[in-house]
Amino acid sequence: MRTLSDILEEYEFLEGDERYRLLIELGRDLDDMPDALKTDATLVRGCSASVWVYPTEHGDKNTETLHFLADSNAAITKGIVALVISAVQDKPAREVASMDVIGALGPFDLKNQLSSNRTQGVPNMIALVQEHAARLAQASS
Fold first, then answer.
1. Tell me: the pLDDT tens digits for 125-141?
2. Of the residues 47, 66, 69, 93, which is catalytic?
3. Are the beta carbons of 4 and 87 closer than 8 angstroms?
């Protein structure tokens, strides 16, 4: 998965439909999420499309990082999920828990680039990711 700064560098050179194509490409690059993980427990509430996010943990207690599997039944929404995940992927739980993910995504100006239907679930995605990170960070304290 590409870093958020690499994605932003490309995104800034694109306009309109090209930005949609980039988001769709990002969604295709997500790790495959097995259907068995697409449950009510991993479903993100408040999204216009179905979105699932499943956290996994890597490393030992001192260097544990979060790795997320995610999917959506809509291509552009899946790309938005990929963008959110790229901000936090493979980072320490403590860092993710306190990170300003909305601020990190700010340069993408999603609210003005996409319809409100497509962006309404973004805060819920971020909340789910950070809640899991906070639980993990607290458990390893």
1. 999 999 988 988 887 76
2. 47
3. yes
